[in-house]
Amino acid sequence: MSSKIYEYKDTQDWYVGEWSPYGGGFYFKDVVSEELSRMEEGLRQLVVEEQSFSVAVIQYNSIMSFVQFVLQMINENQDSQFQAQFHKGAILITEKGQLVLVHLPKNGIQLNDFFSQKNLSGLTVGDTILVATRNEGKTAEFRKIFEKLGYKIENLNDYPDLPEVAETGMTFEENARLKAETISKLTGKMVLADDSGLKVDALGGLPGVWSARFAGNDATDLENNAKLLHELAMVFDLKDRSAQFHTTLVVASPDKESLVVEADWPGYINFEPKGENGFGYDPLFLVGETGKTSAELTMEEKNAQSHRAQAVQKLVEVFPTWQNKPSS
C-alpha cells in the first residue's frame, strides 16, 4: 500500500497529513498544544492494525477542524463512518449511533452539565445552537461553518410560535443581545444571534444597523441595493467607496453571561451588482482588492473569509471555555 497525502487549509488552520502502513508521527511547526496531543492519542485508537497516520500542524486554531481532518483520513482508508460533535464542551466520536471515543477538556466537565436532560424523554446528545433568524440564506452559511465544528443548527423557522424581537438597539451589539437573550429566555436554549451590516465610509458608516431596512422597513435586497447606489451616485472613484461588512455575534444561554465577538470584512462598493450567490449587499460588495463581489464567490470561498466566518472563528476559539463556565 502506498502512502496518501492530505491537506486542509483555511485562514485559521493548516494541516498536512500522511496515511501509510508504516509508523506514524505527530509533528508541530511553531505550534505547541497539549490538547492536540491528547486528542491525537485518542484518534489513534480508531485506526486498525498495520495502518497509521502522520500530521504536520502548521497553523492551529480549532481542535474540531483538526479532528474532522484526521477522521476524513481514517474514514477514507478503512471504510469507517466516524463522526464528531461537541457536547457540553467535550468532543464525542460516534460511528453508526455508537459512542466510540470521548475527548474531555483538560479540567473536565461537571457531571450535571454533561448529563443534563432537555426533557423527560431522556438525554439530549450533541450541542444544538438555535440561530436567531428566519433567513435560510444566513442559516445555510452558519450551518456550513458549524457542521464541520460538530454542532447541530436550528433556526426560528423551527419555532414558528416565537414572537419577533424588535431590533431597537443603536449598535450591532445591542441588537444581537436583544435577539439572543430574549429568545434564550423564551426557549431555554443556547441561542446565537448576529447583527450584521454594511458600513460605508463615504456615508459616515451608514447603512450600519439599518442595513436590512435602508430603503424602508419592508425593503427587499434589490431596493436596498438601489438605495445604496443612489447614495453613492456622486462618488466616482472606487477608492473613495471603501466599506466593511461587520458582524457582531452574541451567544446567550439561560443563567449565563452572554458571549460577544465581532469582526469586519473590508472592501469597496461596486458601481453595479455582479454575481448570483449570497444575499443582501453581496452583489455590490467588492472583496478587498480581488475585483470580485461577495456574490461571485462560492459559499466555500465566502465562508473562508467573510465577516461571519471571521467572527465564528473567534467564537469557536473561546466557546468551549465559555460553555464550561458555571451558571450564574
TrEMBL record:
GO terms for cellular component: cytosol. Substrate binds at T133, R134, N135, E136, G137, K138, S196, F279, G280, Y281, D282, K302, H307, R308. Belongs to the HAM1 NTPase family. It comes from the Bacteria. This is dITP/XTP pyrophosphatase. The keyword Hydrolase applies. The active site is at D195 (proton acceptor). It catalyses: dITP + H2O = dIMP + diphosphate + H(+); XTP + H2O = XMP + diphosphate + H(+); ITP + H2O = IMP + diphosphate + H(+). Pyrophosphatase that catalyzes the hydrolysis of nucleoside triphosphates to their monophosphate derivatives, with a high preference for the non-canonical purine nucleotides XTP (xanthosine triphosphate), dITP (deoxyinosine triphosphate) and ITP. Seems to function as a house-cleaning enzyme that removes non-canonical purine nucleotides from the nucleotide pool, thus preventing their incorporation into DNA/RNA and avoiding chromosomal lesions. Mg(2+) binds at D195. InterPro entries: dITP/XTP_pyrophosphatase, ITPase-like_fam, RdgB/HAM1. GO terms for biological process: nucleotide metabolic process; purine nucleoside triphosphate catabolic process. Its cofactor is Mg(2+). Binds 1 Mg(2+) ion per subunit. One of its GO terms (molecular function) is ribonucleoside triphosphate phosphatase activity. It holds the Pfam family Ham1p_like. Its EC number is 3.6.1.66. Keywords: Hydrolase, Magnesium, Metal-binding, Nucleotide metabolism, Nucleotide-binding.
